[in-house]
């Protein structure tokens, strides 16, 4: 429970948005409400249900938003870090850290899918900054089904780490004159391949009671076999092209 404080010290949610707007121009009412719904912030509530934010709430919001914007830290990690959060370490005039581009996920074996669970949540503005693409280019990737924004419970949407990886790969393909419309074949193949794997793994899971971890491992093994086969077949075809 928060200690009683003079109401003159509190801010409304609108005041919070205005205060944060200069450093975080993309922050919205929906964003703040979403962070509250996720249990990352706990503004005081009046008997009539209005939110009251105090300085420690504002410091915590800045801390969360900087972790998301500058380091692309997923919510589950932020939640863990908040267990040791100290408002005195994030004074109001603290300068934001220089944005760092997020690394692509790396598995122990580069052929593995790694975890099938996501965690990264990027707004459109953060996504554009992270990929170096324009909003029009991001929109084109969405139009061709290569990425898609995910709805938030409180409204708005976000992009996850897989969207980020696809966009960065698509950006590099574009340097060779290969654009979103050309990359649709990868999406179509991935959907067919995923459907095949599901037909194999899901019945086995239901019949043998295989755990979620076991299902994840089976899918990883299939993905490794698939990648090896595609690499060999592509190498063989390109060798034919060079020798012709």
Provide an overview of this structure.
55% of the residues lie in helices and 3% in strands. It is mostly helical and 244 residues long. The chain has 3 domains: 7-89, Multidrug-efflux Transporter Regulator, Chain: A, Domain 2 (Orthogonal Bundle); 119-178, Multidrug-efflux Transporter Regulator, Chain: A, Domain 2 (Orthogonal Bundle), CATH 1.10.1660.10; 183-244. The strands form 2 sheets. The protein has a two-stranded antiparallel sheet. A two-stranded antiparallel ribbon has the order 3-4. The longest helix is centred in the last third of the chain and has 32 residues, at 212-243. The radius of gyration is 23 Å and the shape is globular.
Low-confidence stretches: 1-7, 91-112
Determine the structural class based on helices, strands and strand pairing.
Answer: mainly alpha
Inertia-based shape: globular
Biggest sheet details: 2 strands, antiparallel
| CATH class membership of the largest domain | Mainly Alpha
Order of helices and strands: HHEEHHHHEEHHH
How are the strands of the largest sheet arranged? 1-2
Number of helices: 9
What name does CATH use for the topology of the largest domain? Multidrug-efflux Transporter Regulator, Chain: A, Domain 2
Roughly what fraction of the amino acids lie in strands?
A: under 5%
Average per-residue pLDDT, rounded, comes to: 80
Number of strands: 4
Rg to the nearest angstrom? 23 Å
Percent helix: 40-55%
Distance between the termini: 76 Å
Oligomer status: single chain
Count of structural domains: 3
CATH architecture of the largest domain: Orthogonal Bundle
């Amino acid at each position: 429970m928060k200690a009683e404080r003079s109401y003159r010290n509190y801010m409304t949610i609108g005041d919070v948005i205005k205060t944060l707007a200069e450093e975080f121009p993309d922050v919205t009412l929906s964003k703040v409400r979403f962070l509250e719904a996720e249990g990352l912030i706990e503004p005081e509530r009046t008997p009539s249900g209005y939110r009251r934010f105090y300085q420690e709430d504002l410091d915590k919001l800045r801390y969360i938003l900087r972790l998301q914007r500058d380091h692309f830290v997923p919510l589950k990690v932020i939640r863990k870090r908040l267990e040791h959060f100290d408002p005195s370490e994030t004074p109001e005039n603290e300068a934001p850290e220089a944005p760092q581009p997020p690394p692509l996920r790396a598995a122990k074996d580069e052929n593995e899918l790694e975890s099938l669970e996501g965690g990264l949540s990027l707004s459109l503005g953060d996504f554009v900054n992270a990929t170096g693409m324009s909003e029009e280019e991001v929109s084109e990737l969405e139009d061709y089904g290569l990425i898609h924004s995910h709805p938030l419970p409180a409204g708005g949407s976000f992009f996850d780490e897989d969207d980020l990886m696809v966009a960065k790969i698509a950006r590099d393909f574009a340097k060779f004159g290969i654009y979103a419309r050309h990359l649709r074949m990868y999406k179509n193949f991935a959907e067919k391949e995923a459907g095949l794997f599901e037909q194999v793994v899901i019945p086995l899971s239901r019949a043998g009671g295989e755990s979620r971890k076991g299902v994840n491992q089976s899918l990883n093994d299939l993905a490794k076999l698939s990648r090896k086969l595609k690499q060999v077949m592509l190498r063989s075809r390109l060798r034919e092209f060079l020798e012709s």
